[in-house]
Write a structure and sequence with these properties.
CATH superfamily of the largest domain: inorganic pyrophosphatase (n-terminal core)
Number of domains: 2
Strand content: 15-25%
Number of helices: 11
Number of strands: 11
Strand order of the largest sheet: 3-2-1-4-5-6
Oligomer: single chain
Distance between the termini: 41 Å
Order of helices and strands: EHEHEEEEHHHHHEEHHEEHEH
Helix content: 25-40%
Largest sheet: 6 strands, parallel
Mean pLDDT: 95
Radius of gyration: 19 Å
Low-confidence stretches: none
Bound molecules: magnesium ion
Structural class: alpha/beta
Length: 301
């Protein structure tokens, strides 16, 4: 049995791409099943429900004998526990290559597209296999999620073309409004603690021997989180005291297409790294991996 699995703190792409790759591998005659590396977020649950697809089982850890295909990541720090010792037999991704190594020759496809699901679509085409209706719907939603409905600077023409092809297969015409529906679910902050909100899409990075935390909340209206600003900063301060040089939280308004960048750390740090701004608002800032991490790495690395 080959498991297909995405990263920890699973987002919609890492779940939907795992399901899609498992479907392709089955069509190619392999015994394969999708797994997830943790609890699903509300957006992913919404997507699975919409297309009537069952949530994959959680894969807590892997060992020497487990065969695994990785999707949407290639960093051990983001992978299921034990991945260092497992038998990685495949990798499909859209991030920079991380630090995984393998014991056997493997099939790899990494492309700089806006979403791993777009890369997976290319694999189906390469093998001449048809995508099922439900899986096409999941892949379409993953692309809308990762590219912030085509607004992120990571989005490519190929992602848009793939969405058109997938929408024909799954019969969804109004992709923009489906995307908005998803982001409304994703934006839900009502009744959520500051700790939950900061942890929702949070990643630690090692830069020049220092640990920097960067979280992101994508919302359809900044007003939804503005009232929680002090609580969020308090939670970020708690994370900093745990041993981080600085902690950033991107409050990204997907309609205004910009980010209110909260941070705790040395005074003036934010302006030094990202340029002067009015109240921490950066117009056009949407992507952690493309617009935030490289600047921090340049400064701290
Ligand atoms: Mg991801
Ligand atoms: Mg992704
Ligand atoms: Mg994301």
């Amino acid at each position: 049995m080959i498991y297909v699995v995405g990263h920890k703190s699973p987002d919609s792409d890492s779940v939907c791409s795992a399901i899609a790759v498992a479907e392709l591998k089955k069509l190619l005659g392999f015994e394969t099943e999708a797994r997830v590396a943790g609890e699903l977020n509300s957006e992913t649950k919404f997507i699975l429900e919409k297309f009537g697809v069952k949530a994959p089982k959680v894969l807590k850890s892997v060992g020497l004998k487990d065969e695994v295909i990785l999707v949407d990541h290639s960093d051990l720090s983001q992978a299921v526990d034990g991945m260092k010792d497992a038998m990685i037999v495949g990798l499909v991704d859209h991030h920079k290559l991380g630090d995984v190594t393998t014991k056997v020759p493997i099939e790899v496809l990494i492309r700089p597209l806006g979403c791993c699901a777009s890369v997976v679509k290319g694999l189906f085409d390469y093998y001449g296999k048809k995508i099922s209706k439900g899986t096409a719907g999941l892949m379409l939603c993953a692309i809308l999620s990762d590219t912030v409905i085509f607004r992120s600077p990571t989005c490519t023409d190929e992602d848009k073309r793939v969405v058109k092809e997938l929408s024909k297969i799954c019969g969804i015409g109004e992709v923009e409004s489906l995307g908005m529906e998803m982001f409304k679910v994703k934006s839900e902050v009502e009744g959520k603690s500051a700790r939950d909100l900061v942890a929702r899409d949070y990643k630690d990075f090692e830069m020049g021997g220092k640990r920097i935390g960067v979280g992101q909340l994508e919302v359809v209206d900044l007003g939804m989180v503005e009232g929680k600003r002090l609580e969020l900063l308090k939670e970020m301060e708690r994370l900093k005291v745990e041993g981080r040089e600085a902690v950033f939280l991107m409050l990204t308004d997907i309609m205004k297409e910009g980010t209110m960048l909260l941070y705790v750390g040395r005074e003036g740090l934010r302006d030094k790294v990202f340029g002067k701004s009015k109240d921490g608002w950066y117009k056009g800032m949407m992507s952690r991996k493309k617009q935030v991490i490289p600047k921090l790495e340049e400064y701290f690395g």
